[in-house]
């Protein structure tokens, strides 16, 4: 057995790592960097889905609260397209869901194709008197506006949940950058005396 002298140890230290050792270290470094990049991308996709969920749930709640507030102002309410409450709103092929007669005019909610290509999928539209800066309904010409978009085929469903109660369920669907389609649903119960005038 040959012992390394001080000069032999010094020569070994001066030569550095072998090519095999460098390639192995490089391979392990690339593997670690790839794993970290995949973890960051997965975290980013998860964060994007969560941010979308929170943003759209907020918009859904605002939409349901808008309808709830207008139901409180309504003197007469009807579901669907029976037509007992007259409206001057152009529906452009959209299906009427809810009509409310208020002292300021008729408010009509309809669902269907968007009025332009900037909207995502099916839309819920509100046609009626606009709100003023004071937050109150005005008495001017009715305005037709998109309330919320990206609705599923079910969209906004309204059913009478009992005497004086209306159940609303709003469904949207998105396709995030990564993963499959994401459906977001919100529901609320509201007071409404359908078909009665007060």
What is the structure about, briefly put?
This protein is α+β, with helices and mostly antiparallel strands and 198 residues long. 33% of the residues lie in helices and 34% in strands. The chain has a 7-stranded antiparallel β-sheet with strand order 1-2-3-4-5-6-7, covered by helices on one side.
Question: What can you see in these coordinates?
Answer:
The protein is an alpha+beta fold. The protein has one domain. 33% of the residues lie in helices and 34% in strands. The protein has a seven-stranded antiparallel beta sheet with strand order 1-2-3-4-5-6-7, covered by helices on one side. A hairpin with a 2-residue loop joins strand 2 and strand 3. It is elongated, with a radius of gyration of 31 Å. 19% of the residues are buried.
**Radius of gyration computed on alpha carbons:** 31 Å
Overall mean pLDDT stands at 83
The total number of structural domains is 1
Distance between the termini: 109 Å
- Extract low-pLDDT stretches: none
Helix content: 25-40%
User: Which sequence of strands runs across the widest sheet?
Assistant: 1-2-3-4-5-6-7
**Approximate strand percentage:** 25-35%
User: How many beta strands in the DSSP annotation?
Assistant: 7
Q: Describe the global form.
A: elongated
Main beta-sheet strand count, sense and barrel state: 7 strands, antiparallel
Number of helices: 2
The run of helices and strands is HHEEEEEEE
- Helix-strand makeup class: alpha+beta
